[in-house]
User: Fold Acyl-CoA dehydrogenase from Paraburkholderia terricola.
Amino acid sequence: MPSSRSVVTDLTPASWALSDDQQGLRATARQFARERLEPLLVHQPDAALWSETVRLAATLDLAAMILPEQKGGMGINRHDLALVVEQFAAGPLERAAELTLSSPALMTLREYDALDRLSDRDTRHYFDGSTSIAPGIPDIDASGLWILRRHPASPVMMVRMDDKRPQLVLATLPAGQEIRGAAPVAVLGALSIERYTAVPADDAPIPVATRDEDNFGPDPVRQSLVDTAIYFATLLSGAVQQCVDFALAYSVTRQTFRKPIVAHQLVAARLADMLVSAHTIHLVLRSVAAQDTQAQIAPVSQMARHVATEAMDVARELVQLCGGHGYVEGPPPAARFQTVHWFAMLLMKVEAALRTFIASA
Assistant:
């Protein structure tokens, strides 16, 4: 039902026009998402079909995009990576996250020339289903931890207190059900959200980087949280765009009183509000992602709050537009309504952690 081109694209100011290379990257990812991921909003794939989808996703070469140029990659910047990952959210958010979960951690590791600290140094394996890097979101005092993970034995990028100073490390943590003080919060397809009330010890955590004594350069902990915030905001931005595309197509084909519902003033006003939200989220995300690596915490924090709130509102509006609560069984609005809040929650956890570092921004 939705068109092959997002309505949000047409509203981007001329001064923000994308280059041919940027348009090419995004178009390739969009075509893949429309063909392989968007149908999953209605029909869940069998194991063989999903394995094929993972294989095809790996051919998009996110690994090569992230690798620095000196290692044979593209060295893509955060802005352009966000444009690509945003397209994956045309399908279920948990599927999009499964295919791209390692990207924020790899961007942080690249920033500190620390990709060689991974146990598996072949970055292609982080996008072909072999393994992944789970984002670990610390509580504001770093005493607890939220994890979104795909593989139980995968490394977790997390904050660990070292002499009362936060340190960014790669650690291998047992699954939530295997230790005390931890519990699975939600299962989203192959992903699980886990909550640790205390950060479990790892005998051999691997420091990602340490801030030099003169405080030059971005703090690794802050940089990781910024990359994670941009990642979750990117997924939510893509989901909101898909919501608006579906709402516009639905309102044209759905009729009441012998005319499309889009012709009713109240419906048109709702659609306009949803379109404004999608457009604003997209531009705010691009603005923050385009900043250099020493991005200030305040705009990132503001972006996180705005995106999380607006994404929840748009998902609710879509369900109401399509017939209220009774429509939340099966069609795309159901998939959005049932998953957006989890990713919005994780984004707000990142925002809360960011606020603890705002004094040093």
Remarks:
- The mean pLDDT is 86.
- Residues 220-360 form a domain with the Butyryl-CoA Dehydrogenase, subunit A; domain 3 fold (CATH 1.20.140.10).
- Residues 145 and 297 are 20 Å apart (CA to CA).
